[in-house]
Amino acid sequence: MLTEDQLADQLRTQLHRELAAVEPGPDLLAGLNRRRARRALATRVSLVAAPVAAAAAAAALIVPGIGGGVAPGTGPASPSATGTGKPAVLTAAKVEQVASQSRRAMARSGKVTVSYRMTDNGALTGSGSDRITFAGHNWNDVFTQDIPASNGMPAHTQTAINRIVNGQLFLHIAGPDNRVRWYHDTNPAGHPSIKIPDPRTLFGLLNPSAKFQVTGHRQDGGTRLTGLRATASPQLRPLSWLPGAEPGARVASLTVWVDARHVVHQMSLRITRNRTVDPIYLQKVVKNGTESIRIVIPSRAYLKEARAMARKMRHLHATVSIDPSQSAAVKHHLENSDVSVTFGGFGQTQVIPVPPNAVPEFSRG
Question: Where does residue 359 fall: left (phi above 0), alpha (psi -120 to 50 degrees), or beta otherwise?
Answer without folding.
Answer: beta
